[in-house]
Write a structure and sequence with these properties.
By secondary structure, the protein is mainly β. It has no helices and 24 strands.
Amino acid sequence: QSATFSNHPHQPFLYLVLRGQPATFVVLEASTYMPRAMHPLPDAEGADNLLQTTRGDIYIPTHPHGKLFYYRPTTNRLTDVPTPLPDPAFLWDAAEDSCGTVFAGSWPQARLLAHRPNTHTARDEGSICPQEDYIRSLAWSPFTQRLYAGIGAHAHLLEWDPATGSQAEILPARWCTQHFVARLATIRHWLFASLVPAQITLVFDLARSAEVVAELPPLDCRDILPHPAQPDTFLFVACGSLIAWSPHAKEPTVI
């Protein structure tokens, strides 16, 4: 249901979650696709997203019981992080801030959880959008030092300051008729936000008061990479194609 690659050059592994009762977390060797480890995820049936942290841990936000796990490749150990959520609950997405805190967004009540390294539980930060139910997507921007949360079932895009708990709506009013901000990604001072059902990605320039500077196809995943030969061009996958986009170009290019 979800997958990510190791970002360590000497550990080329593929991590994925297979749906089931329970779901299973699988570690594959990327070169051979042979399984290195398989871990059942108790009380979980699936995971929509995986997060690889700067420490190398893989966080697994799951449903339908709001279970949060993380896997440490160096020890091949899976840890269950207790969460103070009602049951049933869905954890949709996760993001890491510059201090290593991992945030997870949930349904119902659009609650935000925070798990700091070396602690045994996730703290409930409360509902960041009380009138809504879903935090469908999360992304951290090192540029602004803010967390961005995509909300549903009536779309909002919130900029949240973990230091103060203050927040601001940055989704332009004309897009608030959408149902979900379903996927978020950041790179440098750009924020990419995919909307459903419009099937469009808005690009926000966080250096210019979160001004919308482009409308692109919907993201298939949240990985945005710099072009190896063109520093001001970014690569991402949308609608099954590899797309190149530059803020200096009028339209994205299919590679």
